[in-house]
Amino acid sequence: MAASKAVVPGKALRRSKSAEKSSPASTRGFMGRLPSEILMTILSYLDTATLFRISHINKRFYHLASSNALWKKQYIADFGKNEKCTGKRLSGMAIMEVRDQATGYNKRLYFETIGQCDKIKWMKRLELISSHTGLPSETERILRNLQITWELAVIDKSGCKRTLELSWCHFIETSVTLCLYGGCLPNYDQISTLQLYGVRRLAHVGLKLVRRSLMAKLDMQTLTKNTQVIGQDRLVQLKLLQPDVIIGVWRDQCSVAFIMFNLHIHRLVERSIQGSSICPYVEPMVRPPYCDTDPEYGLHGYQLHIVLHNTVCELMSRSFSQLFCHRTQITDGLIPLIAIKSKNLSQHTPLTGDITLPWRCEVLQGAVENCCIMNLTLLDEFRKPFKCVTSPVSVGLANTTLCYDYDGEHYRIHYQDSDIQVKMMLDWMKEQKQFILISLAVYVSADYVNKHFGRNY
Fold this sequence. Notes:
Blueprint: H1 9-22, H2 24-33, H3 36-43, H4 48-54, H5 59-64, H6 68-79, H7 83-86, H8 89-95, H9 105-123, H10 139-145, E1 148-156, E2 161-165, E3 168-172, E4 175-180, E5 191-204, E6 207-219, H11 220-223, E7 228-232, E8 236-242, E9 245-250, E10 256-264, H12 268-273, E11 302-309, E12 314-323, E13 334-340, E14 349-350, E15 356-361, E16 364-369, E17 371-379, E18 385-394, E19 396-397, E20 410-416, E21 420-429, E22 434-445, H13 446-453
């Protein structure tokens, strides 16, 4: 039998020390012992991505790698020739003494500019307004090109937080429907808070950055007091928390099947990217010109665009111009704007498809009958958005007959919030198997008009 080779303890010890000297841990220890001046010189040769990653090693490297001098150099190298992105920032930085700002100022400025470069280009596209809707015509394209998506934080009563990424979305003319599901969600009655975020993912020179904009924060304890069940099928029940939010709950259970948000496209890009992670975007207050010569200022010149749709297709879309109300017609604090009159057959509008609200989550899907989504865009006489609403609505059998030109059953849709009411009447034409819209009226709160136009109706 061959004898095993003896190991000399001294040699083994020397090999161990040699290996230790060349190990990554010892290298980091050596780097950590270097004076800050030498480390800053080394860091000045690094590219942006490496400099950013090094700042996550420890507190010392975070402080050194956040130096304003280093990030000023990176900023000028990457954005120095792009005046559209930087505006006055670069000239301000060139004359700014580094010591005037706290460590990390230029680093933050660098990352803000990354997002700004692409955003400036695409935000200009928001100036292209559709004559049909009075809204930006390329909202969907802008959202997709800026790589904007949405996510939902679900917080239960114990404080546990779960984040849902977007499962699917459906764009229609003036809104987008978001559906989120999956994961181990708490039961419906255990949800404390819902927080919807717009999410923009940026990629730049090897960096992957994520920015979140808070769009809605919903207190379930407050909302569940006024929750409405707007429909159900054999699998789920639809609970309407507020005009733009539905929670699908499995029937005979408390577990959540999906959460659906319906967002109007008015200011949707701004709301999705221009808030912070804790504060939503605040829409600027735009007042119409003051007028003291028109006795019915704020009561005429309205344009209405209304869409009925579901999560798959459009059922009806139509615009109405020059809607008005005389001062004497204001009743119970409401200003009526009549778009379709039941006696005017030429105004009656057919719907295409069934009034259902299809849903799907993971492996199951279904459709709730007599439900759809309404998008309402009301423009003032200056063609500026005056009131925008996107909300699921239910269709119910009407108690009265408005029009005797049809022999089918009449159905009604009624939407109401603190500022506006919408009343629609439909007739079911049995032979054609089709709904026809025979009456449409919008009632605007006089208080809402008074606040916008500075009146006292």
